[in-house]
Amino acid sequence: MPQLPTADPYLPGHGDPSYAVLHYDLDLGYVPDGNRLTGTAVLDLLVREPTSRLVLDLAHLRATKMRLDGAGIRKWSARDHRLVLQLDRDVAAGAELQLTVVYGGSPRPLVDRRHGDAGWEELEDGVIVAAQPHGAPTWFPCNDRPDDKATYRVTVTAPAGYTAVANGDLVAHHRRASVESRTWVMDRPMATYLATVQIGRYTTTEHDPRTRTIGPPDLDLAGSFDQQPAMLAFFERIFGPYPFDAYAAVVTDDDLEIPLESQSLSTFGRNFCSTDWSRVRLIAHELAHQWYGNAVTLRHWRDIWLHEGFACYAEWLWSEESGGPRSCDAWARHHHERLAGLDQDLLLADPGPELMFDDRVYKRGALALHALRICVGDEAFFDVLRGWAASRAGESVTTEDFLAFASERTGVDVAALLRPWLYDAALPALPRG
Q1: Which of 58, 134, 207, 420 is most buried, judged by most C-beta within 10 A?
Q2: DSSP-assigned letters across all residues of 292-309
């Protein structure tokens, strides 16, 4: 039996490099009673390599109909959480196809021994989709690789009284009989793992025209989520213009251990409605991902520090700006001392799939940025951050891309400066400011 493709070694069994998806149009119906999902997905495809086979990722759900415009399907089958389409002929690179998949079932998370579970998950009364890094196939057929960014249109129909939230802008809302349909459009390129749907009995609190919190009506947002307008204004000053039209925090009625960002929105549990710094810092962290992780996205999972190191550093910056527990430099010194006492067995630029979400990736990544800041000065450092976010928005990038960009921007050999932080296991000394 022919081997199925893998696009990234950190996530075996996901992604097909032979084609790209340009646009996803998803029409979903969800019934919480019984956890039933039905969907029709229309994917606009661009063939990258000559092929007579297309492989999509779809987990725990059953495809019932398939149509391909631009070529014929000789046969198709489901195998190992994938849909395998054998075409009736070889298709040349550059060909554009449109694939329609009708599917449904009872969605549930996809469990990976190295990354845990991710994807569509029932709450006490509603749904959360936390797809990083491998959960996108639990709710729609996709080419699940971080370097394949597409635009999206998502329509969700759910029982009346439930609010369905997805990425981007709400462009339509219809009520009929006992159901409500909402259509959301994300017109900026987005990786599959950043696509999400959140469903619950929610109301919306508008903090200002660009920031809102969506959740149960009895949430107390004082001192936590009501800080988002100030956070966004501060991050725009240091990172550059916010890369999307608006930002939403979805707060579930359930407690969640950790929050997670998706493009243009992030998801938290009720337990994050707190003034405690351990909660507030993560509200800032997920917002910062909109620049570093969402607008500018890694090409390979090994470069996860480009997301988490930047967002962790944003926490320290917000602490200093908001009068939090420590200044940015004090946080750096604190975490450097802590990391020095831990195992020195992690390569930041390639930590391996088992350690890609290790806390040392977050803190050491932030420390590498602080070391760069100390060496080049504030003006050059923040010019790099702003220029990186602005010039690479919508793209997929690598560590080497960042080092080359920062070197050109500053006139300093940033690759040599950061090499010990990125490619040596031993923790370097932190420069004195």
Answers
A1: 134
A2: BTTTBEESSGGGTHHHHH
